[in-house]
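F.,

This is the one I mentioned.
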């Protein structure tokens, strides 16, 4: 990707190589002599799966690689306005970092200091790099908060990070990044964990700020649907190497590399529902993966009901004053039925009550009202000891496989523990045999039995979490955002696994997610929640084709559509290149 002339280039990366020492004798090459340019006043998307080298490249540009175990190839260069950033002193890099080049990190809660108000942290940037102090710094900080769309910026200046929503926290990070009017903004997966509506707002904000301030953006992501909406140029990375790069139109309309094609097609499409999603290996082994028939979804009526929620309610209470308390109704009068062997999708923004419903069904939250009928009995009315035999038949897969698996247990111990508690298997050897069979079922080798969770990737850990649920041979599996943090290729593998298990065992799923494309692929029926209430419930295809409630329409309009007709027309006519309108 070479600009028309050298003056158009803001940053030029040439033969960048980065390696890390993993022990006394071994090193791993994270980035392998890559070269690409970031033109002035443009957005370049750096795309690839976890471990491809995207974030390492960004940290190398900023000079933030750990000095104790990282090495940069001496032949490599990172030229910013003809200055090689790799040759600058620490003092020079500190002046450049935050001033000329800024970065938005993926997780705002780990980047914002929880002990200080967001306004203080923003003013600190202005003091350090611009020299503003006191009232001047506060005034400018409030202006920045207003620019990034924070409501009531004067009041929010004194708010702490935990008092803001995830979207507002990310807006604060953007305000800090643009405070010194940088020439390059690096955004590292800034929307991965956000709801589709908040994601759309953040993408629009970054595009508008880029246009208004005429700066360049290096946008790091694994989601090509997002890339198609905001990028001018695309660089595709895998295993530390660049597989393909070029203008966004070329990458989306005529991708040359099989890996690029795979990234585009691994993600569920809104237009069709194949029986199996393609995975990366399908494309790397063959440029033309075999055609797969579509899977029919929906309810015909008359299916046996395995679980029914009736007027479910859940309230939380917080202290108000010295003796009073305030009630927050997280779930309000929710009723639904789950058919045997079918999937109910549960969608809505953060705070809509989706996860609370799931946790209440398995009694990890005690319901405030209502009934959950399972096996002809009300689970919520049972004493704890009696509910145990029913609990094992309803299992839950949590969102984060890193925190849901005990790091002190081997995989074998993790999977055998629930069998021991519920007295499944006559002896230890029976349980070991069952565990080996389950590992094979979820696509892991027998050697995983003796390994610890930290020795596995995120996708493999989620497979272990699913295997742990299967030890109970459940009738109902609740998947709470269980694929939201995974790369598109790993996500496809886990979704295929869930489909296979449902086909084989006839399990029923409650699939909770804010990713509407994934929900459409998985669900027979979709229930939309907002502020603790059900606003719409219908068959999967019907709700996407004919949404009735305004909130459902808002959610659907926020789905990233990738390289769409509006952007294609703008590119061909030389018009506005940044568009986040689906």
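My design for it:
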């Amino acid at each position: 990707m070479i600009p028309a002339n050298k003056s158009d280039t803001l940053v030029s990366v040439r033969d960048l190589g980065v390696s890390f020492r993993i022990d006394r004798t071994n090193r791993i090459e994270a980035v392998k002599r890559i070269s690409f340019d970031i033109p002035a006043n443009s957005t370049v998307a750096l795309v690839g799966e976890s471990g491809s080298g995207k974030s390492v490249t960004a940290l190398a540009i900023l000079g933030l690689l750990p000095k104790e175990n990282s090495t940069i190839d001496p032949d490599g260069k990172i030229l910013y306005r003809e200055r090689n950033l790799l040759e600058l002193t620490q003092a020079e890099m500190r002046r450049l970092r935050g001033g000329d080049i800024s970065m938005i990190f993926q997780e705002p809660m780990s980047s914002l200091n929880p002990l200080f108000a967001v306004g203080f942290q923003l003013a600190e940037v202005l003091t350090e790099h611009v020299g503003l102090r006191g009232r001047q710094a506060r005034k400018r900080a409030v202006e920045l908060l207003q620019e990034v769309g924070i409501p009531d910026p004067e009041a929010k200046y004194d708010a702490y990070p935990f008092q803001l929503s995830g979207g507002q926290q990310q807006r604060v990070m953007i305000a800090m990044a643009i405070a010194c009017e940088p020439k390059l903004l690096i955004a590292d997966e800034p929307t991965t964990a956000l709801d589709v509506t908040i994601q759309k707002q953040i993408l629009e904000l970054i595009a508008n700020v880029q246009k208004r301030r005429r700066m360049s953006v290096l946008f790091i992501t694994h989601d090509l649907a997002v890339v198609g909406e905001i990028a001018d140029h695309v660089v595709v990375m895998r295993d530390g190497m660049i597989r393909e790069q070029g203008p966004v139109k070329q990458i989306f309309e005529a991708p040359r590399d099989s890996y690029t094609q795979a990234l585009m097609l691994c993600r569920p499409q809104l237009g069709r529902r194949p029986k199996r999603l393609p995975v990366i290996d399908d494309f790397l082994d063959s440029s033309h993966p075999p055609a797969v028939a579509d899977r029919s979804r929906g309810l015909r009526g008359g299916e046996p009901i395995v679980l029914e929620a009736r007027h479910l309610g859940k309230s939380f209470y917080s202290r108000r004053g010295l003796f009073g308390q305030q009630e927050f109704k997280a779930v309000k009068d929710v009723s639904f039925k789950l058919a045997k062997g079918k999937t109910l999708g549960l969608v809505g923004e953060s705070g809509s009550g989706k996860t609370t419903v799931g946790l209440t069904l398995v009694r990890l939250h005690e319901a405030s009202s209502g009934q959950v009928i399972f096996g002809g009995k009300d689970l919520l009315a049972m004493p704890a000891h009696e509910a145990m035999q029913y609990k094992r038949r309803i299992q839950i897969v949590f969102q984060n496989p890193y925190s849901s698996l005990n790091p002190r247990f081997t995989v074998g111990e993790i999977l055998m523990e629930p069998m021991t508690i519920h007295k499944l298997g006559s002896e230890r050897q029976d349980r070991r045999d069952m565990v080996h069979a389950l590992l094979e079922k979820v696509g892991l080798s027998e050697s995983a039995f003796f390994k610890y969770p930290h020795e596995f990737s995120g996708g493999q850990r989620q497979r272990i979490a699913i295997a742990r649920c299967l030890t109970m041979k459940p009738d109902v599996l609740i998947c709470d955002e269980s694929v939201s943090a995974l790369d598109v290729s790993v996500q496809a593998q886990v979704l295929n696994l869930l489909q296979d298990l449902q086909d084989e065992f006839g399990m029923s799923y409650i699939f909770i997610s804010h990713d509407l494309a994934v929900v459409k692929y998985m669900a027979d029926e979709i229930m939309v929640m907002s502020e603790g209430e059900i606003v719409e419930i219908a068959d999967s295809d019907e709700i996407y084709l004919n949404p009735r409630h305004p909130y459902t329409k808002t959610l659907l309009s926020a789905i990233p559509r990738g390289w769409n007709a509006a952007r294609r027309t703008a590119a061909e006519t030389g018009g506005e290149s940044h568009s986040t309108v689906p």
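The two ends are 27 Å apart (CA to CA).

Talk soon.
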